[in-house]
Design a protein that fits this description.
The protein has 114 residues and is of the alpha+beta class. The chain is 41% helix and 13% strand. The chain is globular, with a radius of gyration of 18 Å.
Length: 114
């Protein structure tokens, strides 16, 4: 392969890089390493939870990343049809990322001190 062809290959790879789908109304979009739901769900789009979404859940369990509590919450705040069954199909690395992102909804942004 010539140097010119190598340059073209690199440029082509940069152009064809897959970007996460856009979901209007989503506060966070998580790209899963392994698709779930028979390979149909590659992204999880979440909106910020409202107080009603937490009904019947212990906030401490959600913040501590209890799998059962997060599995109940995620379908309530997912805007792309992600279900509890999808949640239980997640690979361990994806599971940890989803639970961490959900827990960060309950933290304040740190403002710089003056």
């Amino acid at each position: 392969m010539t140097e010119q062809n190598k340059d073209l290959t690199v440029e082509l790879e940069e152009v064809t890089e897959v970007k996460p789908m856009e979901f209007p109304g989503a506060d966070k979009v998580i790209t899963l390493d392994v698709a779930v739901g028979g390979g149909k769900m590659k992204h999880l789009a979440l909106r910020k939870p409202m107080p009603g979404d937490l009904r019947g859940l212990k906030l401490l369990d959600v913040i501590q990343m209890d799998a059962g509590a997060v599995a109940n919450l995620v379908p309530r705040i997912a805007i792309n049809g992600f279900t509890a069954q999808h949640f239980y199909q997640l690979e361990p690395a994806d599971l940890l990322e989803v639970m961490t992102e959900v827990a960060t909804f309950f933290t304040k942004e740190q403002l710089p001190t003056q």
